[in-house]
Design goal:
This protein has about 525 residues and is an alpha/beta fold. About 35% of the residues lie in helices and about 15% in strands. It has 19 helices and 20 strands. Helix 1 (about 35-45) crosses helix 18 (about 485-500), helix 4 (about 125-140) packs across helix 5 (about 160-170) and helix 10 (about 290-305) packs across helix 13. The protein is globular.
């Protein structure tokens, strides 16, 4: 690491050059929470004085939304038979500089970044994201963009998992240091071994002590094994993935890195998710004056053809329709919930498994004026539902972090969640025996069953209907929670400074460094000992 790549700050600390690599970054492309994190985190990192650059594939929608795009580099020799350009521009919201990996034959396609219009994974995903990783390694090493070389590369999720490995293969001890963040250990980027040579990966790596994983090679395993530091998106999840229940076969790999595995709770973009200024809402409001929330609820009830009733509890589900999110359990138990709570209204917005989409859609006719199902995802609708809802239903079999509960709480919508991962780290529930509800911000259940979910929802509805003062206090406490990125960004900046061996700003240092996955946890609850 040379001092020539670092800029001196007024307080004597040093600004690092950091490259963030991801498959999707909001607002250029989004399929889920990964994009939100990779859109908001770098803005918070930049506020700490770090020189942040972003990198992702040049999907058509990303190129269309890029500000002032220009072609700045050709990477013709990146991989045999693949022609790649680098397009530079600025993010439309933050103005941060971003480099798009432009290869139309790989990225100019219909469907999602990962699947065709029929929901099938692209057969050449290994090559597609292998090209992203190679391009990122070249840029980080200063071989593509004149005058710019990274000090630290932060690679996100399996799509960028080869970056730490490639930097070791392509450079000597002076390479940029690497951080790899696991957003979801269930998605691993595992591919047939015979595709590895196409990505320039040596045969000697295709062994259990390398990147081989049950007869395939794994992008995720490469990131975890070869990064200088591994992080995941909540402290509880960092412990969970070291166990068979949550490790998805990779728990041994995580255990081997436990001293360099850190859980840092994700944040949210508090400027984009602010009920006081949100342009998507028909009425803005704050924790001190919730009049606008009632207006949002009435307008949403009208638009969704629900009974316009301010006193009816409105539960919302805004998530992917998958088994991970317990959507199958909710589909099975929803009729009982609607019968048990005759005034309960339910609004769903999301997409996922076709059978679940159809199951929820077919149920609407049974509950006229009480149920709405919108299959798909629209950013404006999501904001409006968070504002309109009284209750967020967010059960999960596993949840690395979860952002929906944070959005909901910021908008005064009380979450009902399972005690796993980031849900356990962000929602507090003293339990049904604490009548005062001291410090309570939601309702938590432990078992991934319909009975447990239904019981938690019943406690929530009972509080809403019979304890208006407690409900009001709970809602205000939710809205006062700070889920912004400042503290988590400072924790990441501490890691960057440690890896680069450079002094970091006092603004960062005063917030403290994060704990590793094997550090003791002081959080109460079923998963505290994991």
């Amino acid at each position: 690491m040379t001092n020539a790549t670092l800029r001196q700050c007024d307080d004597g600390s040093v600004t690092l050059r950091q490259l963030l690599v991801a498959s999707e970054i909001y607002p250029l492309a989004k399929t889920g929470g990964l994009a939100d994190v990779c859109g908001a985190l770098p803005k918070a990192i930049a506020r700490l004085g770090i020189d942040v650059r972003l990198m992702m594939p040049a999907y058509p929608e990303a190129l269309a939304r890029l500000v002032a795009p220009r072609h700045i580099a050709d990477l013709a020799c990146l991989l045999p038979g693949v022609s790649v350009r680098v397009v530079e521009g600025s993010m439309p919201d933050s103005g941060l500089r971003i480099w798009l990996v432009d290869c139309p034959e790989l990225f100019d396609r219909p469907g999602t970044p990962y699947q065709d219009p029929n929901g099938c994974e692209w057969e050449d995903n290994a090559l597609r994201f292998g090209v992203l990783c190679h391009a990122a390694a070249w840029v980080a090493l200063g071989r593509a963009i004149p005058g710019w070389r990274a000090d630290v590369v932060h690679a996100h999720d399996w799509h960028a998992g080869l970056v730490p490995l490639l930097l070791q293969l392509l450079s000597d001890h002076s390479r940029p240091r690497t951080v790899f963040t696991v957003h979801n250990a269930a998605f691993q980027g595992n591919f047939p071994l015979d595709q590895a040579s196409q990505l320039g990966l040596p045969k000697e790596l295709l062994i259990p002590d390398g990147i081989e994983f049950y007869g395939r090679f794994s992008f995720l395993k490469a990131g975890v094994r070869y990064a200088d530091k591994v992080t995941t998106v909540s402290p509880t999840y960092a412990k969970e993935i070291c166990t068979p229940e949550f490790g998805f076969g990779m728990e041994g790999v995580f255990q081997a890195r436990c001293t360099n595995l850190v859980g840092i709770l994700n944040g949210i973009d508090a400027e984009r998710w602010d009920p006081g200024t949100d342009p998507y809402l028909s009425h803005n409001y704050s924790g001190n004056d919730l009049t606008g929330k009632q207006g949002c609820k009435a307008d949403t009830q009208k638009r969704l053809r629900l009974n316009v009733d301010a006193s009816a509890p409105l539960a919302v589900f805004i998530s992917r329709l998958t088994q991970q999110k317990m959507a199958d359990v909710l589909l099975d138990r929803l009729p009982g919930m609607m019968t048990r709570h005759p005034r309960l209204q339910f609004a769903l917005h999301g997409r996922g498994e076709p059978a679940l989409e159809a199951g929820f859609s077919n149920m609407v006719a049974r509950y006229p004026g009480r149920m709405s199902v919108q299959v798909g995802y629209d950013e404006a609708r999501a904001h409006c539902l968070h504002a309109a809802g009284d209750i967020l239903l967010h059960g999960s079999r596993f949840e690395p972090c979860g952002l929906a509960q944070m959005y909901a709480m910021r908008y005064g919508t009380v979450p009902v969640v399972r005690r796993v991962g980031g849900l356990a780290d962000s929602v507090r529930d003293p339990g049904m025996h604490d009548r005062l509800g001291r410090g309570q911000t939601g309702f938590i259940f432990d078992d991934a069953t319909g009975d447990a979910m239904g019981s938690a929802l019943s406690r929530c509805v009972a509080t809403y209907e019979t304890q208006p003062r407690r409900w009001s206090e709970l809602r205000k406490l939710d809205m006062a929670c700070d889920f912004g990125w400042a503290r988590s960004a400072a924790a990441y900046a501490c890691i960057y400074g440690e890896l680069a061996g450079k002094q970091i700003s006092s603004l960062v240092a005063e917030r403290g460094a994060p704990q590793s996955a094997n550090a003791p946890s002081h959080k109460q609850g079923r998963n505290a000992g994991l």
